[in-house]
Amino acid sequence: MPMFLRKILHALYLSLMKVVVYFSPALRHTAFAGNGSSRQLCEHIIRTGAKKVLVVTDKPLRDLGVVDRAIAVLLNADVDIAYYDGVLPDPTFDQVVAGAAIAKSHGSEVVLAIGGGSSMDAAKIIAAAATSTAAPVDWVGIGKIKHAILPLFAIPTTSGTGSEATIGAVISDAVTHEKNIIMGERLLPLAVALDADLILGLPPHITAATGMDALTHGIEAYIGVWERGTRLEDARLAIRLIFDNLPRAYRDGKNLEARNGMAMAAYYAGLAINQVNVGNVHAIAHQLGAKYGIPHGLSNALVLPHILEFCHVEAQQRLAELAVLIGVGKAGDDTAGLAHKFIQAVRDLRTEVGIPNKMDVIKRADFEAISQLAIAEGALYPVPRLLDRESVMAILNNIAQ
Ligand SMILES: [Fe+2]
Q1: Strand residue runs (E) in 10-167
Q2: Spacing, Cα 84 to ligand 1 middle (Å)
Q3: Residue 22: pLDDT above 80?
Q4: pTM of the model
Q5: Which of 366, 372, 377 is nearest to 389 (CA)?
């Protein structure tokens, strides 16, 4: 399809999305922040009157004792706790069904997710499946969950996906590895705790990759062409916090101030994409994750500077603002120069946190297929410039070893 037609269709699609969200109800959501805030969240859950709580998590986190520390208040209260700890990276529908079966037999009244994006995404769909007889695969898409789900709470133990602040969940097909996005306002956790105490043990390479995911969220929300809500303020806060805190959290995982900064950054970046969605970086990174199993944050980090170069003309003003925000340039300097300074700062940050700029698992034989899927996905986001085959191929060529 010629580019001018694709641009018209993209503009029509964005207009339709604006109408849809205009009629969506405002969402209520509470965040407890700071060291030890998981305690406040647990007290909040007790105040709801719930007596049966399903904790959704992964086994390593439970074995490390992080889960017990997070729910210490619930363990000491008159609350019956069941666990589903079978969540694996890139959770599948099978895991969701297994978790929902536990919720049903236990009679769980609320679901508490403890973990990274995988546990939070799985918990969202488990909370929906626990009150339904439908197959969760039927909810793939936007707004398909129409029934009341179990009240949902979350304690993130990584600082990246921002799933604690979004209405989306990514669930994979166990056979094809296809990633399915399920979006619906009921999937927003009612309350979350951003508790740095629980994040101190996160290894440096995961700190780096998840932090770059949060950075990508902030930047994609900021340069997107959908003016909505507080996405600019949320994104600016997140981006500044990440440049200030990610290198410190990477070098010294026990640095509480840096961990708190990153927990807040990931949350605010999540709030930003929850309003306007992500962009072309994710459109390519999702394919790299599905095809090669490259962790999500790492895929984003590989692609991010290249997409910023790709749209540096269309997003020049916004990129220049970000350069001033993080202090690599001054207001009033040449806009194009500022934009390039920001892109260079992104590259420098990536290097500083030990992330490579190429990976040898990415194969040239797959470029054509990846490119087609990425172009189609990118057209669903409010991107400043639509992807084209030649540009995606060039980017893939740059990140393959
Ligand atoms: Fe992401």
Answers
A1: 30-33, 52-56, 80-84, 110-115, 141-142, 152-156
A2: 24
A3: no
A4: 0.93
A5: 372
